[in-house]
């Protein structure tokens, strides 16, 4: 337990980053007292994305968790179930998430301020899937973003101009016309194939959002 234990626990920070085998990691999480003290948890390269049940059970015990990093874990479905009211920073970059998992996750983190979904599969279409249906799906997912969200990173995904209308509606209506209800400051869409969307938005809006392309 010393690998993840005493020194880090003093400051409420717990990380694995691939240094501890998954089975050993979740054995440690059986300690309810330890779980209750964790405010920041970094499990990059540490979780089996095909079996998230142990992670869900562990997170339910972390009532004070504020920062969660699950980078590079081959996660294709939402990574946990159940509300996490204290969570303000969630990093899910480098996984295999599509828009459905993205949408289903949002109601569980109502106080999220930073959401990082870089290098996933948002926007990817399977054989025979309709582009318009996926556009509506992304638009509906974006509408579920918590009102307090400040930083949204969807860079290096697979969004293209088939999602242009949905993204523009989100940026223009869901944000631009409702600034008093939303706190969004930065939207990062770099590394997607969205031709001219950024310039079009800037030309038609005085909104103070920092839009990154």
> Which range does the strand content fall in?
5-15%
Helix run count: 8
Gap from first CA to last CA: 44 Å
Mean pLDDT: 78
Label the structural class. alpha/beta
Shape: globular
Major sheet description = 8 strands, parallel
Low-pLDDT runs of 5+ residues are: 1-11, 174-180
How big is the Rg?
A: 18 Å
Helix content: 25-40%
Number of DSSP strand runs? 8
The run of helices and strands is: HEHHEHEEHEHEHEHE
**Spatial strand order of the main sheet:** 1-2-3-4-5-6-7-8
What does the model show?
By secondary structure, the chain is of the alpha/beta class. 31% of the residues lie in helices and 11% in strands. It is built from 8 helices and 8 strands. The protein has an 8-stranded parallel β-sheet, with no helix packed on it. Strand 5, helix 6 (131-143) and strand 6 form a beta-alpha-beta unit.
